[in-house]
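We modelled the chain as a single entity of 210 amino acids. Its sequence is:
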Amino acid sequence: TNQNLATQTMAIKFTDIEFLLNNGRKMNLMSAKGVFDPNTTTELLINAVKKTIYQPKKMLDLGCGSGVVGLSLWLEGLAKEPICASDLSEPSVSCSQENFRRYECEADVRCGALFDPWGDEKFDVIIDDISGISQEIAPISPWFGGVPCDTGSDGTDLVLDILSNSSKYLAKDGYFFFPVLSLSNVNDILKEAKENFSIVKLIERQEWPL
């Protein structure tokens, strides 16, 4: 309920973080424990959308964390209000709500797993930033810090579920953006993508030496 969400918001200890857009604009955001902070994958997703979309679209930021992806694209003039965003993490939902308010951007932020919060809604653009690395790697990586990562041993459980259902939530000629990390079973992910979409294109690529 709204009352419970308000109680949750009051209990969260917010921290301030910064995120720098490619155009040099600095975003000041709220984060909290259990909220995935923006990283290079965030930048790749934003850049991929900017290379593909040239006018405002109805957008869903799936696995929104701090709300940085949807908010960044709105600031770039590529997302219609209200921006739709959701996350399984209640602290993430609270941070996103605070960040959208901070920038005076109208948003519909919901708490729930994958597409569960969205019923029969359809979107022009869906951006998936839900974890896609092996569940066994996540706890020993520096990236998660308490953020849920129920992805299975090969990192595909959530991604495959999203890919198999995403077309139900896309409007005609819609776009679905998702990262593929080599810390997961890439072949299975790409196979599922090609079974569900007529066109699958690589838009951005980044290598990290480990």
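As a brief sanity check on the tokenised model: Strands lie at 15-20, 26-31, 59-62, 83-87, 107-111, 123-128, 170-177. The mean pLDDT is 82.
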